[in-house]
Amino acid sequence: MTKLHIETTINGEPREFLCDSHETLLSALRNGLGLTGTKEGCATGDCGACSILLDGRLVPACLVLAPEAQGRAVTTIEGLSSGDALHPLQQKFLEHAALQCGVCTPGFIVAAKALLDAKRNPSEDETRYWLAGNLCRCTGYDKIIRAVLDAASEMKESAI
Amino acid sequence: MATVHLPSGLTQYTGGVETIDIDAARVPELIAALGHRFPQIAEQLGEMAVAIDGEIYQDPGYQLLRADSDVHLVPRIAGG
Amino acid sequence: MTTPREFKYVGTRPIRHDGVDKVTGRASYGADVVWPGMLHGFVLRSPHAHARIVSIDTRAAEATPGVKAVLTGKDLPETTATIALGEAAIDLRDVGDNMLARTKVLYHGHAVAAVAATTIDIAREAAEKIQVVYEVLEPVTGIDRAIAADAPILHPALRTKGAASPGAAGPTNIASRLEFKRGDVDAAFAEADVVVEREFRTPMVHQGYIEPHACIARCGEDGRAVVWCTTQGPFVVRDACAAIAGLDPAHVKVIPSEIGGGFGGKIVVYLEPMAIALSRKAQRPVKMVMGRDEVFRATGPTSGSRVRVKLGAKRDGTLVAATASLWYEAGAYRGSPVGAGAMCALAAYKIPSFFIEAHDVVVNKPKVAAYRAPGSPIAAFAVESVVDEIARELKMDPIELRLKNANAEGDKAPYGPKYGPIGLKQILEAARNHPHWTSPLAANQGRGIAVGFWFNAGMNSSATVILDTDGSAAVVTGNPDIGGTRAAQAIMVAEELGIPVERVRPGVGDTDGSGYTDLTGGSRVCYATGMAVIRAAEDVRDQLKARAAQIWNVAVDAVGWENGRAIPPAGTEKAEAMTVAGLAAKMAHTGGPIVGRASLYAPMAGPAFGAHICDLEVDSETGQSKVVRYTVFQDVGRAVHPGYVEGQMQGGAAQGIGWALNEEYIYDADGVMENAGFLDYRMPVASDLPMIDTVIIEVPNPLHPYGVRGVGEVPIVPPLAAVANAMRDATGIRFTELPLSPPRVLEAIEAASAVSVGA
Q: For chain C, how many structural domains are there in total?
């Protein structure tokens, strides 16, 4: 089978990879590119564990074909912290004990980043509905929602 | 003598006996004595948890008994 | 009475030590590793729920380019070994059969063969070439069918174990029967002023951990195997792999990955021995990862059930009599948690006369596994619903009714022994005094309360505390960290040694790197393993005191210890108190490195109770309901890291709410699960839930130096009834079957309004 050669940008860096035409972007990220922070929970777009940003838009990587990344910009959890500083969302998840097993955490943080990119001051309700595509089975969501709202208010303050 | 409370569900095999005093220093002696007295339930007794003075040992091993210990045999429990 | 200890670190909320790895995506879970030369394994599964395997022809698969090994049940030895793990000790012959069928398939999705190939696509395509000839049998898809006189028999050799029903003999699907009784039940009911009897049903539900089962294994020519896998119990996996794959346990090492949820479902092995056997054939590492549909169809959910409960009370609310008949589905092999359900059913109440019977029933569905307080939520759903009905009949406040009958220290548990200090009355009083209980409800809303009980396990634990020359310390145990236990263990070491939590490095050892430790489960880690950690830290402290005695040239007994410092005896010349760091710096000159260790077998922790208040809003047009307010009260003994204690309470409540409102295994007539995916198996999402308030009550457990009781399991017990009682309050309808999904609720509302219109 002939592999396809894909040129893309991942977390700000130009990357190339080979993939099968039917391979998902999730598989290419995890298996080809070694970016295992993006998790597979269902492979059917129902759990959000593989949330990534594709040209800034929140998508489950399991429902995107790897060749679709050609010429696009991909952001994964590995691209959120800058230098030695965590993203405010990452810091707030830690402070609020918003993770237990942690396997859904990368997906939540990426999805929450997309929310805060779109809306600086989301309400609790807006946050809950935005994150309704991400399943967490450990926390009951309480501390996750608090962490996101706290990060939003801190980011808003630092932006002023 | 330790006071042993037999599992309430097994009294159909003990002639209705619910409580029995047994002189035993440790759990294995106690189980052996019970099995000798009630051979029909001997096999099941070895698979049970043992509560000694309120503390439940899933696997009672060679736990020591006091002279006046209150002992209950209870089914083992799985945790999640 | 001793003065309560004052803590410096216990009760604080430091950032968890493994946190940065988990928020940055660096933490390695089961499916995240690659080993050089590794192959990919794929499992062929049965399309039938019940069938005899006539023949399996693997030749076409073996001939496929890229295929390196094919495995069927015949390749594995039969074992008679068992692992003692609570109720129905794990029978490894059953576990082996469940992992890979030998002669019969017993549920849709039961594994019949496995293929290892250079790519997962090749493995999948080759598996599809395996020819399996089945003789299809009638599936037994539920309890009613399983216990019918003409029911197909799953296991011809199975006989009912335990307290047999009169006349029961011969082949059966009832694997065991237990009884608990006290007093004269008939006479007691005759004295009751109010008697309520109901029958309840719950469907099979899944733990729903987000990370599917995954492992990678290699087995060399010398029969030595190394397994990396996502598990709650690395030592359980080691022993199970050795027995099922036919290896010497001394030659198996299990390295636990980070674990993406388990809730009891990641104890039994489903892949690991297969990966070892495939690797042994192929002489290359084999990685196996389940898809979500495989997780639903072929791992261990918890039982579907039928429970009949009858309670009798006096006019003043005193409960006088109870009967309960519990029937739990075990799935394909014996071993449901029905015994625990029977022991938990009436654990909250002083009832002088009762009779409880419990039946373990095999059916053609996946073999159940532990799920958070296994057996207790199902029993509590029935009992707490009936208690609610009694309160309504008596026009009594449901908390007052429960308080009036609540067990306390010194009362006899229904399963026999007397309770030590327990916090049931305290949580009920806290619930009664909480503003939630008296806050007004809006239109279409109802409020329910229910309590729940769990034992909390003890068992084997080991811990090692390693002091470094800079005065920092590492702590290693054999418990995978499923929800913040590293942070709790670091807090314990900090507390005992008086060093900052940040200076403690908590770690999870593999099966060669830590002493034997029972699984992460049963709410036992913070209690039993925590006790080992505390003792190992005490061991370090004792050694530090001895080193100080050397330095000061005084007797060890004369050295004191205060606030993380060794204190010289009064009047010792030129001696000043020495810190851990100061003493650690001199280790090399006072006898070498310091390592503290402790191993222990703990009795079960003091049992714990929780009470939940649920406010539900019901849309009578659609049958949809939404939890609008929820408060969890729980006696945890002692909260070591309150953030993660609250998290357990909130997460357990959310799982129970899902069980109550939406989750269920839906089967067709052929025994095929119709909703094996997260879209159709509807777990709660963020927009389904409100904030979940928590009230931590601390009634110290005398068996633990800090009073820890364990926290993880109790919170899933009350929600089923708390939600159903709120639904009763909102709609006037008593639902006796879960889930309370919109179609069921709508149908009942329409039926009720038709009746009232007709009347």
A: 2
Span(s) in chain A for CATH 1.10.150.120: 88-159
Beta strands C39-45; C286-289: pairing state: parallel
Output the CA–CA distances (angstroms, integers) from residue C659 to A37, A94, C664, in the order listed.
30, 29, 7
Residue A157 pLDDT: 83
Does C404 touch chain A if contact means CB atoms closer than 8 Å?
Answer: no
Note whether C414 and C435 are same-domain residues.
yes
Chain B CB contacts of C458 below 8 Å: 56-58
The structure's pTM equals 0.97
C654 → chain A, closest CA residue = A140
Tell me whether residue C157 is in a domain: no
Let me know whether C632 and C741 are in one domain. Answer: yes
Class of domain A4-79: alpha beta
Whether this model's ipTM surpasses 0.95 comes out as yes
Q: Is the CB of residue C33 less than 8 Å from the CB of residue C101?
A: no
| Structural fold of domain A88-159 | DNA polymerase; domain 1 (1.10.150)
Domain boundary residue, one of C602, C635, C650 = C602
> Between chains, do C87 and B54 touch, taking CB under 8 Å as contact?
no
Contact list, B8 vs chain C (CB under 8 Å): 179-182, 416
- Chain C residues touching residue A134 (CB < 8 angstroms): 685-686
Reported as a single tens digit per residue, the pLDDT across C210-252 is 999 999 999 999 999 999 999 999 999 999 999 999 999 999 9
pLDDT of residue C88: 45
**Average pLDDT estimate for B16-41:** 93
Positive or negative CA dihedral for C51, C55, C60, C61? positive
Contact A39 C692 (CB under 8 A): no
Domain count within chain B: 1
SS3 breakdown of chain A: % helix, strand, coil, rounded to 5?
A: 40, 20, 40
| pLDDT for res A160 | 63
pLDDT-flagged residues of chain C (< 70):
1-3, 84-89, 164-168, 757-759
Is C679 found in the same domain as C654? yes
Enclosing domain of residue C510: 19-26+458-602
Which of C22, C28, C691 to substitute to test the interface with A, most A CBs within 10 Å? C22
Nearest to B72 among C89, C373, C417 (CB): C417
With a CB cutoff of 8 Å and minimum separation 6, the contacts of C17 are C486, C487, C490, C504, C505, C506
Q: Per the CB < 8 Å rule, is C339 touching B73?
A: no
